[in-house]
Amino acid sequence: MAYETLLSETMDGVLTLTLNRPDVLNAVTDTMLKELHGAFREAERDASVRCIVLTGAGRGFCAGQDLNAHGGAADSPRPSVGDHLRQGYNPLVQRIRTIEKPVIAAVNGVAAGAGANLALACDIRIASEAASFVQAFVKIGLVPDSGGTLFLPLLVGMAKAAELAFTGDRLNAEESLRLGLVNQVVPADAFMETTRALATRLAALPTRAIGLTKRAFNRAMMPHLDDILAYEADMQTLASRTHDNKEGIAAFLEKRPPLFTGQ
Ligand code: LHQ
User: Fold this and answer.
1) pTM for this one?
2) Ligand 1 pocket residue status of 171, Cβ below 6 Å
3) Ligand 1 within 6 A of 192 CB?
4) What CA–CA distance (Å, rounded) separates 40 from 25?
């Protein structure tokens, strides 16, 4: 299957999906969202796919929503931020959580905003030494979305989640490991090989049992994920109406520090 924004390769039962907009650290466009949906839908149906690896081309994993697209030059007519989440990101997070096959995020570089939280939605995260995580939302006056308000406190606890979400500070790979955000940190030169070895191993294990285990983990740890995603979309709608959101996006695009007023 040929995509515009993704590279896709299947080997030894492992589907590797590579986000492929390296010039903008694989920031997400509508096309990328659609293609990711399609790729996960296909992977769900295809019995020969028994493990999925999500990674990024170039030096980034994913910088979240493409703020150029969000700012105006969209690749399709722009719905409200809430609808964008309800129609695009939220169903993708649901797909990652409900596909009954292991999903590994191979975090090769910076993972920011929704890009960070898509990685957190995956079952396992392998980080390159070059990886970092940024809950970048606050820097543009937004709230964590794509399941971040659940996944982040689940993984690192409420206090650290609050610190990361409120400050938008960048967490390096070692710190991410210490906090339990990632399973393993691997030197950059051994990174894809190590990820592939784990993925190939998982793909050769009893897929149905792993899928049912994932279903049970979902039930135990995130039975209200639907509600949480819907609530995030509501909160994001409120945040998107603030002056600070407009200022944050303008400042990012103009490459200057934002001046937030609290309004
Ligand atoms: C970008 C981006 C980007 C465009 C880097 N867009 N170009 C959902 C629904 C609806 C609306 C809103 O949002 C959401 C969910 C979200 O995801 S909101 C959060 C969106 N993401 C961000 O706010 C992150 C913005 N990016 C950054 O803060 C930095 O780029 C990070 C920390 C990711 C990386 O910093 P650096 O390593 O210093 O790289 P850089 O900033 O120099 O970026 C490299 C290039 O990528 C640069 O372009 P240029 O032409 O100067 O080389 C950036 O403009 C571009 N880029 N992120 N999200």
Assistant:
1) 0.97
2) no
3) no
4) 21
**CA angle 137–60–234, rounded 5-degree value:** 25
What does the longest C-alpha to C-alpha distance in the chain come to? 54
What are the pLDDT digits (tens) for 94-148? 999 999 999 999 999 999 999 999 999 999 999 999 999 999 999 999 999 999 9
Query: For residues 242 and 108, what is the distance between their CA atoms, to the nearest angstrom?
Result: 33
Place of tokens 């500070």: 169
Q: Kindly state if the Cβ of 64 falls inside 6 Å of ligand 1.
A: yes
Is the Cα dihedral 57, 62, 63, 66 positive or negative? positive
- The token pair that represents 219 in the structure block: 């039930």
Report the nearest atom of ligand 1 relative to the CA of 114.
Answer: 17
**What order do you get walking across the sheet with 103-107 strand by strand?**
6-11, 14-19, 51-56, 103-107, 124-128, 184-186
